[in-house]
Amino acid sequence: MSASLSATARLEARISTDLHGLLKRAAELQGRTMTDFVVAAVQDAAERAVAQAGVVRLSLADQQRFADALLEPPAPAPALQRAFKRRAKLLRTE
Would you say the pTM of this structure is higher than 0.85? Predict the structure, then answer.
Protein backbone atom coordinates (compact mmCIF):
# COMPACT_ATOMS: atom_id res chain seq x y z
CA MET A 1 0.00 0.00 0.00
CA SER A 2 1.29 3.46 -0.88
CA ALA A 3 2.25 5.79 1.96
CA SER A 4 0.03 8.50 0.43
CA LEU A 5 -3.11 6.36 0.92
CA SER A 6 -4.67 6.57 4.36
CA ALA A 7 -5.95 3.50 6.14
CA THR A 8 -9.69 2.99 6.22
CA ALA A 9 -12.16 0.99 8.27
CA ARG A 10 -15.58 -0.25 7.38
CA LEU A 11 -18.78 0.74 9.19
CA GLU A 12 -22.10 -0.98 8.63
CA ALA A 13 -25.48 -0.10 10.07
CA ARG A 14 -29.02 -1.33 9.66
CA ILE A 15 -31.42 1.56 9.14
CA SER A 16 -35.09 1.85 8.28
CA THR A 17 -36.10 2.24 4.67
CA ASP A 18 -37.53 5.65 5.55
CA LEU A 19 -34.18 6.84 6.89
CA HIS A 20 -32.40 5.35 3.89
CA GLY A 21 -34.68 7.33 1.59
CA LEU A 22 -34.11 10.50 3.57
CA LEU A 23 -30.33 10.08 3.46
CA LYS A 24 -30.42 9.35 -0.25
CA ARG A 25 -32.52 12.45 -0.93
CA ALA A 26 -30.30 14.68 1.23
CA ALA A 27 -27.18 13.39 -0.54
CA GLU A 28 -28.75 14.06 -3.94
CA LEU A 29 -29.66 17.60 -2.92
CA GLN A 30 -26.02 18.25 -2.03
CA GLY A 31 -24.69 16.54 -5.13
CA ARG A 32 -22.87 13.89 -3.10
CA THR A 33 -22.85 10.17 -2.93
CA MET A 34 -24.80 8.75 -0.05
CA THR A 35 -21.56 7.38 1.45
CA ASP A 36 -19.89 10.80 1.28
CA PHE A 37 -22.96 12.47 2.80
CA VAL A 38 -23.22 9.96 5.67
CA VAL A 39 -19.48 10.05 6.43
CA ALA A 40 -19.47 13.87 6.52
CA ALA A 41 -22.58 13.96 8.74
CA VAL A 42 -21.22 11.34 11.13
CA GLN A 43 -17.85 13.10 11.35
CA ASP A 44 -19.54 16.43 12.11
CA ALA A 45 -21.73 14.85 14.80
CA ALA A 46 -18.74 13.07 16.37
CA GLU A 47 -16.63 16.24 16.45
CA ARG A 48 -19.47 18.17 18.09
CA ALA A 49 -20.01 15.41 20.68
CA VAL A 50 -16.31 15.38 21.59
CA ALA A 51 -16.15 19.18 21.77
CA GLN A 52 -19.26 19.37 23.96
CA ALA A 53 -17.85 16.75 26.33
CA GLY A 54 -14.98 19.13 27.10
CA VAL A 55 -17.28 22.00 28.07
CA VAL A 56 -18.02 22.45 31.75
CA ARG A 57 -21.50 23.77 32.43
CA LEU A 58 -22.14 25.43 35.78
CA SER A 59 -25.30 26.75 37.36
CA LEU A 60 -25.31 30.43 38.30
CA ALA A 61 -24.66 29.52 41.94
CA ASP A 62 -21.72 27.30 40.96
CA GLN A 63 -20.33 30.06 38.73
CA GLN A 64 -20.45 32.44 41.68
CA ARG A 65 -18.71 29.93 43.97
CA PHE A 66 -16.00 29.38 41.36
CA ALA A 67 -15.43 33.12 40.92
CA ASP A 68 -15.33 33.62 44.70
CA ALA A 69 -12.75 30.85 45.06
CA LEU A 70 -10.57 32.48 42.40
CA LEU A 71 -10.87 35.94 43.94
CA GLU A 72 -10.45 34.79 47.55
CA PRO A 73 -8.84 31.34 47.60
CA PRO A 74 -8.97 29.42 50.87
CA ALA A 75 -5.82 29.12 52.97
CA PRO A 76 -3.68 26.12 52.05
CA ALA A 77 -4.30 23.01 54.11
CA PRO A 78 -1.52 21.86 56.46
CA ALA A 79 -0.67 18.93 54.16
CA LEU A 80 -0.19 21.31 51.23
CA GLN A 81 2.03 23.57 53.33
CA ARG A 82 4.19 20.57 54.29
CA ALA A 83 4.39 19.50 50.65
CA PHE A 84 5.60 22.95 49.61
CA LYS A 85 8.28 22.89 52.33
CA ARG A 86 9.48 19.46 51.18
CA ARG A 87 9.52 20.70 47.58
CA ALA A 88 11.55 23.76 48.55
CA LYS A 89 14.12 21.51 50.32
CA LEU A 90 14.36 19.21 47.31
CA LEU A 91 14.87 22.07 44.86
CA ARG A 92 17.28 24.03 47.04
CA THR A 93 20.65 24.40 45.32
CA GLU A 94 23.50 25.34 47.61
Answer: no
